[in-house]
Every structure is written in structure tokens, then in C-alpha cells.
Amino acid sequence: MGVSNNVTAVVNFIALLCSIPIIAAGIWLASKPDNECIHSIRWPVVLLGVLILVVSLTGFVGAYWNKGGLLAFYLFCMAILIALLLILLVFAFIVTRRDGSYSVPGRAYREYRLDGFSDWLRDHVTNSGNWQKIRTCLSESDVCSRLTQNYLSADQFFMAHISPLQARCCKPPTVCGYNYVNPTLWLNPVNPTGDPDCYLWNNDQSQLCYNCDSCKAGLLGNLREEWRKANVILIVAVVVLIWVYLIACSAFKNAQTEDLFRRYKRGWV
Q: How many CB atoms lie within 10 A of CB 231?
């Protein structure tokens, strides 16, 4: 029984370590400018990571001090958390599967169309009820102001790999034919009817293209890229957690069997 408990304690410690990259991935996502402006999706990954940390610690204590009740509680809670993490991964993969980006001749960065993303993202992130708050948050951030500090010439800017958010919120659509002055100042469009957003562009630094559909598309492009990167870490973590959970279940079952056998030998049953 002691051997089984030691095995359970070790695998719970591994599960505890797995919670660290999950929490780190969640904090990384939450710290991004776009996620800072979308409060509803900032903290799910961090919360799941913290819960896995607490539950793993409970299982470790239960195994180390031979507390069967704590171990049973750990197995029950960990099964729920792994299921929730799997649901989050599948959901994130589905809603970020479609990519609304397209290449622009003479530009290193890509631009984005709003209708190229999933319906759920469009409806729940950029609907009229949410966008006004998001738009205000973006305009108060340094997402666009950083561009004027980093890129001094037009050629340097056009060959830059800027983020989807910067490519669509901080500048007018390329099809409009605006003339470059600096990354957030554009004048005299030669094709103002090329896109409805051409008329919405404003050189006021608090306006820019924050009212444009293309800005909404850039926000979704940012979200997609960031969640795709975070998913790699989460997939590795959930695979290890499932492996650890199966070992813990087997060790707990062996410990229970050994305990019954020991009690039987002593004549208790």
C-alpha cells in the first residue's frame, strides 16, 4: 500500500508541475492587448490552471499522508478539470479554425476580412454591444502608438511583420490607396470606394480605424494567432495530465485492494 501511495504522490506532483505551464499560458494570453480589452475570455485558462494546482496539491497530501478521502476527492475533481480543459481546447480549435487573412502585394504583413472568421467569434466578440467597450479600450492602449516609434520609413513599415490588430486598426485598408506619412497618418486616398472602411479612416489618433470592420477582423486575427500558440502548450499539458490521472487511478485501486487484503489477513472481514 505504501508503494501505491508513493506512486500516487509522485504522479500528483507531476500534475502539480503541469499546472504551471497552463497558468503561464493563461497569463500570457491575458496580458495581450486584445485580450485585455475582452474581459470574458481573459482568465478561463488561468482559472483552470490554478484549480489543477490546488487539486493536485490535495492529491499529493492525500497520498503522502495516506488519506483515502482526499485521494478520492482528487480523482473526482481532476476528472472534471481534465474534461473541462479538453472542452476548452476543442472549442478553441473549432472557433479559431477559419482564418480570415489574405496577402497584400508589396506588403510583408497580411490583412483580414471579418467574414473570414467563425460566426461565434464575430457574434460574441465584435457584436455592437461589446465593440464600443473594446474600441475604447484599444484606443487607450499603445497598440498603434508603438508603430510610430518602431518604423520611420514607408519601406520599413511595408516590410514589417506587424500584428493583425496593428495591420487593421492602426492604418486604413491598403485597397483605399492612402499615401503613407507615418504608420498612423495617411492622406489622399486614390481609391476611396475600394472598401467601405476607406470612409471610416480618421487621422485622429483616438479614432484611426477603430470604427472599421477591418479593425474587428484584425482583433479576431490576433485572438486566433494567440490561442493557436497557447493551444500547443495546453495540448501537451492535457496529454500529460491524462497519463498521470490514469496512473493515479491504477495506484489508488491497487492501494484499496491491498488494504482489503491486509484487513482480510488480520481477520477484520
A: 17
Tell me: the pLDDT tens digits for 64-78?
A: 776 777 778 888 998
Question: Which CA distances in Å does 44 have to 41, 65, 66?
Answer: 6, 32, 32
| Nearest-angstrom CA–CA distance, 88 and 28 | 17
* Residue 185 dihedral angles phi and psi, to the nearest 5°: -135, 115
Distances in whole angstroms, Cα of residue 20 to Cα of each of 61, 158, 226: 18, 39, 18
Per-10-residue mean pLDDT of the chain, 269 residues long, equals 60 83 86 70 82 86 73 87 91 87 90 88 78 87 88 91 92 94 93 92 93 91 88 89 84 59 51
pLDDT of residue 191: 93
* 59, 8 contact by CB (below 8 A): yes
What is the Cα–Cα distance from 10 to 43, expressed in whole angstroms?
A: 29
Cβ density class 32-60: b for 16+ within 10 Å, e for less: bbbbbbbeebbebbbebbebbbebbbbbb
- Cell numbers representing residue 120 in the block: 461565434
User: Would you state the cell numbers that stand for residue 241, as one nine-digit string?
Assistant: 495530465
Q: Where are the domains of the chain?
A: 2-98+225-265, 101-220
DSSP 41: G
Q: What are φ and ψ of residue 105, in 5° steps?
A: -55, 135
pLDDT of residue 108: 92
